[in-house]
Specification:
The complex is a heterodimer of chains A (572) and B (369).
Chain A lengths: L1 H16 L2 H27 L16 H8 L2 H31 L5 H7 L2 H18 L5 H8 L12 H12 L1 H12 L3 H9 L4 H29 L3 H7 L7 H10 L5 H27 L21 H28 L16 H8 L1 H34 L5 H9 L6 H13 L9 H11 L1 H14 L2 H9 L4 H29 L3 H6 L7 H11 L2 H33 L1
Helix pairs in contact in A: 2-14, 2-18, 2-19, 3-14, 4-8, 4-9, 4-11, 6-8, 6-12, 6-15, 6-26, 8-12, 9-11, 10-11, 11-14, 13-14, 14-19, 15-26, 16-26, 17-18, 17-20, 17-21, 17-23, 21-23, 22-23, 23-26, 25-26
Chain B lengths: L2 H4 L3 E12 L3 E12 L3 E5 L6 H9 L6 E6 L2 E5 L4 E2 L8 E3 L11 H11 L4 H14 L15 H14 L4 E5 L7 H17 L3 E6 L2 H7 L2 E6 L2 E6 L1 H6 L4 H6 L3 E10 L6 E6 L4 E5 L10 E7 L4 E2 L6 E12 L4 E7 L2 E7 L10 E6 L4 E3 L3
Parallel strand pairs in B: 3-9, 3-10, 7-8, 8-9
Antiparallel strand pairs in B: 1-2, 1-4, 4-5, 5-6, 10-11, 12-13, 12-15, 13-14, 15-21, 16-20, 17-18, 17-20, 18-19
Helix pairs in contact in B: 3-4, 3-5, 4-5
The chains are: A mainly alpha (572), B alpha+beta (369).
Chain lengths: 572, 369
């Protein structure tokens, strides 16, 4: 009797789940291994206070964590100061731009909207290098120009906490603009129009209706940007090292690179940063999902822009000023520098040359690094786009049990700073048999893992737009799963897969944080090579390398835009 | 074969169907019905009543947890036999609410899909697509990209695609709900025409009661996962069995009261309403006991102004008149509360006028508790 019951229950389980359990378990194990293992090692190292060279650890304790607050309190202060300053500036710039570009009738709105994306794609590393050329004390272009017109002191100095925050805000703050303008676009214009009909003025409408409604969105963006700024690395490295200013991320790097390296301390810093970011992002998600968004639907509206009259020229110049500071001046400075033997903005003293580009492309290690990056980019993008498409299909289209867990795991890396993730991977694989450590394969695994959220989000955006009944209809017409995938799902997904490929390629080529600690002598890649050239040789060579990297990334992105625009035209 | 004879052959047989959603929500809770060959049956109900889930379970797009589904004598789903035939092997066809016209194919390729899957020859495909597109008057747009069609045209393509491979069973999931009122009325006529011309059996899902009554041989009214009533459109309209059916299909006045006399041989019953007067009603559900509380339904269209011998009377005064064009709606203040009456626009009664409402006993239907 008892046995019969159990048999029946087991049969029922099989009937209901069948082959699903092994498949989802397998996926969860593989993704979980990639995503969680580095974090586990981070935990282990952070509490390891024994002999740093022995594995497993000889002694565990909390000394590493406490030393953060006793020895390195100034670093924590620096980090919070930089992140706060950068967040305030980024939110101010982002909110103003979002309001101007979604709510007013400023000239050339669509062109400006397109231009706003450029600083993000330039990367904070290139931005920081460019601003070092522009505003370094003494040799910076701004100071050179100041001296040329008779100034004596150096009014500009980018090698400061404020300088770091400034560059972060300009080049990483675009995410604030994207988030705030999304929440402004999803607001029903009828809400504002009814205030106007009731007799409220433009200003009163903005203050009593618009602002309260977008406030949760702005708050969410503030938290999100602050968390990002805490984990930001490249700008703090390029601009902080000359002035010996350290934030948590750069201090992790220097602790690992120092001799002897103090891994326990680095791990403790990485762990603390990771936990703070997880808490911030959890708080952010709580704000977003709390339900105060009842008025903000998922639907995108095209709000009727307000007529600002003559004032709109002032708004237009604000947008131009941002483009000038974040695109035109930096790119111009890098271009000018890369063609000179000695970086100067006083053109009468300049000697122009192509040597820097020759050197960058001829130099063994540099060319090798560039080639490695491109090979890695192609590999990671190809494998990534395929695997992530399958993951997305499982997460959003199948009835597989445990797909929620898969989604959570795939999105997990977005709450770990790249550098910290690299740190964890370093220990996870250094003791692993198979000799992956120090090879391009390990970098490939690292890229794939840290880029999971980007790829999954990109492809999911397309999958969610495809009405489920388009697939169901193929089945009803008699097509099996394979035939349906080949004739309906994949053709419809094509633009999304191509977009993901290009984004993954671009993100791989410009990767710095995770690569820095995982790169071996025979597996150099371009991002960290630019950093070390900046530290060891001239500005001119670095500028040429940065521009070559930017060129490769931009090329991929231009192809991407062409492809998506064409497929959009095809579909509509 | 004539209509009723054909319908004796059962095409679809749904028995004790239960569909559970995640979190153990019962979407469909023990639904049974048959559909005969060539019959056009509509599942009607408010959103969330389980009608679409039932339809999707027939198509194999939803996994039931109990019951059975048989199509043409073949078991497609059976909880007892642990059998669930995949969608593509059921041989049914379906028109989706969103049309689901593939945007990356031409009109021709969309319609040819089911034929290509069935590995038909090029000539056969061309002929069948041509015929299907001809039926929906879309032959001239065969080479157009499907993304360049209007809503009404997409609807026609979806219809042509669903019938092109000559399926015996076609399922319709609210196919007209995204069209504007005028186009919807036109498509109803065309759909009814198509059903008659092709030998197809269809199950149709809608929340629009007018549509359900207009195009069905039989209507199945559903509410919260169970069937409230099955019957021809006239039966559903004239003899609603429950309060839900009376209220959801058409418009009706519901009067509470007490059953006074037991039903006679013809199903007639005396029913006392709030003001103490007694109405002559019918009890289509069968014998009822005197003395019980009950409720009768009177269709707004079956109430006339002025005394008529042999009919029920209620005195009142016109509180409000609304001119709708096709009919005029009156709200009448009466001793038993406000009643709604719909009359043709040929004769108008002013607001404030005293009127006597009369309606035949067979239009005063006792509802089941």
């Amino acid at each position: 009797m008892q046995k019969a019951l159990v048999d029946h229950a087991l049969g029922d389980m099989k009937h209901r789940f069948g082959w699903q359990i092994p498949i989802s378990l397998g996926i969860i194990l593989v993704v979980g291994f990639l995503v969680l293992l580095p974090v586990l090692f981070l935990f282990e190292k952070a509490f390891n206070v024994g002999d740093p060279m022995s594995f497993p650890a000889t002694k565990h304790g909390t000394d590493n964590l406490f030393s953060l607050f006793t020895e390195d309190f100034d670093i924590i202060l620096n980090t919070v100061y930089v992140a706060l300053m950068a967040t305030v500036m980024a939110i101010f710039i982002g909110f103003t731009l979002a309001w101007i570009l979604t709510r007013t009738n400023v000239a050339a709105r669509e062109k400006l909207e397109r231009l706003m994306e450029v600083p993000y794609y330039m990367t904070p590393l290139v931005g920081a290098l460019a601003w070092a050329v522009l505003a370094a004390p003494k040799s910076g272009f701004f100071n050179q120009a100041w001296h040329a017109v008779g100034g004596t002191n150096d009014p500009f100095d980018i090698y400061t906490l404020f300088g770091i925050a400034w560059v972060m805000a300009l080049f990483e703050g675009t995410v604030a603009y994207v988030m705030i303008s999304a929440s402004m676009k999803s607001m029903d214009p009828a809400l504002e129009e009814s205030a106007r009909v009731m007799g409220a003025s433009k200003l009163r409408t903005t203050l009593t209706v618009t602002l309260p409604l977008v406030l949760p969105g702005v708050l969410g963006a503030t938290l999100f940007v602050f968390a990002e700024m805490l984990g930001s690395f490249a700008a703090a490295l390029v601009l902080g090292i000359p002035g010996r200013i350290y934030v948590v991320t750069t201090s992790i790097w220097s602790t690992v690179e120092a001799f002897p390296p103090n891994y326990g301390k680095a791990a403790a810093m990485g762990l603390s940063l990771f936990l703070v970011m997880v808490a911030m992002l959890a708080f952010y998600r709580w704000i977003v999902t709390r339900g105060s968004y009842a008025t903000i639907t998922g639907k995108a509206f095209r709000p009727r822009p307000m007529d600002m009259g003559r004032f709109s020229w002032f708004l237009f110049s604000f947008c131009l000023l941002y483009i000038l500071l974040a695109v035109i001046l930096p790119v111009g400075a890098l271009l000018l520098t890369s063609f000179q033997t000695f970086a100067t903005v006083i053109l009468s003293q300049a000697t122009f040359t192509l040597n820097n580009y020759q050197e960058a492309l001829a130099l063994g290690p540099v060319r090798g690094a560039l080639l490695n990056s491109i090979v890695l980019g192609i590999g990671v993008a190809t494998v990534g786009a395929l695997v992530m498409t399958v993951l997305v299909w499982i997460i959003y289209r199948s009835n597989l049990k445990g797909r929620g867990a898969i989604e959570y795991l795939a999105m997990f890396p977005s709450s770990v700073p790249r550098l910290v993730f690299g740190l964890g991977l370093l220990w996870a694989w250094i003791n692993m048999p198979g000799g992956l450590y120090g090879s391009l394969w390990l970098l490939g695994i690292a890229y794939f893992t840290v880029l999971l959220p980007l790829g999954v989000r990109t492809i999911a955006g397309v999958v969610l737009q495809i009405d489920k009944s388009l697939e169901e209809c193929a089945r009803v017409c008699g097509a099996g799963w394979g035939y349906q995938m080949r004739t309906v799902t994949l053709p419809l997904l094509k633009p999304g897969i191509i977009a993901a490929w290009m984004l993954l390629f671009a993100a791989s080529v410009r990767e710095v944080g995770a690569s820095l600690l995982l790169m071996g002598p025979h597996s150099k890649v371009i991002g960290p090579s630019i950093v070390s050239t900046w530290a060891n040789s001239g500005t001119q060579l670095t500028a040429a390398m940065a521009l070559i990297q930017t060129f490769v990334v931009m090329l991929a992105l231009i192809i991407l835009f062409r492809v998506t625009r064409e497929s959009q035209r095809e579909m509509s | 074969m004539s209509g009723p004879e054909r319908q004796q052959i059962t095409r679809i047989e749904v028995k004790d169907l239960v569909v559970r959603y995640a979190g153990d929500v019962l979407a469909v809770n023990g639904v049974s019905f048959d559909v005969g060959r060539g019959e056009h049956v509509t599942l009607l109900g408010p959103s969330g009543c389980g009608k679409t889930t039932t339809l999707r379970a027939i198509a194999g797009l939803e996994q039931p947890s109990a019951g059975s589904i048989r199509i043409d004598g073949r078991t497609m789903y059976s909880a007892a036999e642990k059998l669930n035939v995949t969608t593509e092997n059921r041989g049914v066809s379906m028109v989706f609410q969103s049309y689901a016209v593939w945007p990356h194919m031409t009109v021709f390729d969309n319609v040819a899909y089911g034929l290509k899957v069935r590995k038909q020859s090029g000539a056969q495909i061309k002929e069948a697509v041509d015929r299907a597109l001809g039926l929906v008057q879309m032959r001239h747009l065969a080479d157009r990209g499907a993304s360049k069609l209007s809503g009404g045209q997409q609807q026609r393509v979806a219809l042509a695609r669903a019938i092109a491979f000559s399926p015996t069973v076609v399922l319709f999931d609210e196919p007209l709900s995204n069209l504007d009122a005028k186009l919807r009325a036109e498509m109803r006529v065309e759909l009814r025409d198509l059903q008659r011309r092709l030998d197809i059996t269809s199950v149709y899902v809608t929340h629009d009661q007018e549509e359900a009554l207009a195009i069905s041989d039989r209507v199945i009214v559903m509410n919260v996962g169970v069937i409230e009533q099955i019957g021809s459109p006239q039966e559903i309209y004239n003899r609603p069995r429950t309060r839900f059916v009376a209220d959801f299909v058409g418009s009706a006045n519901l009067l509470k009261g007490k059953i006074r006399g037991a039903s006679d041989a013809g199903g007639g019953v005396a029913f006392e309403i709030a003001d103490g007067s007694v109405l002559q009603a019918i009890a289509p559900g069968g014998a009822v006991a005197a003395g019980n509380d009950g409720e009768v339904s009177v269709r707004t269209a079956y109430i006339g102004f002025g005394k008529v011998d042999g009919q029920n009377q209620i005195a009142g005064a016109v509180y409000q008149r609304m001119f709708h064009g096709d009919f005029v709606q009156y709200i009448i203040d009466s001793p038993v509360g406000r009643l709604t009456v719909r009359r043709p626009p040929t004769q108008l009664v002013d607001e404030g006028t005293a009127v006597t409402l009369s309606f035949a006993p067979e239009h005063c239907v006792l509802l089941q508790g």
